[in-house]
Amino acid sequence: MGSSNLFILALFVALSLSNIEVGLAARKLQQLPINLPQMPSLPTTLPPFPAIPNLPTLPTTQPSLPSLPNLPTAPKLTLPPLPSFPSIPTIPTTMPSFPFLSPPPAPSSP
């Protein structure tokens, strides 16, 4: 138990000292003067554009296309007749009237 406590204490001291050294190195780097690289001078005139090459001339006449071979005629296909579907019953659009019973007479008061 004592050796593990001593090991943890030694590790803590080592990390603390290394952290202090890192902080000092960072402070030293921040205090150094900044040396910026020199910018190269830009040319005042632009170089000339390259010459455009001459393109070959295109032919004005097109070669004739070969004629298409004759295609054989396809036989005419006939479809069988559609089966007859049963007729759909129509939905009535009028509401039937329901007979309502009249309420019983109220008792008369004297």
Automatic annotation (TrEMBL):
Positions of region (Disordered): 45-72
Keyword Signal: yes
Annotated Low complexity bias: 54-72
Coiled coil: none
UniProt superkingdom: Eukaryota
UniProt keyword list: Signal
Name of the molecule in the record: Lipid binding protein
Organism for this UniProt entry: Corchorus olitorius
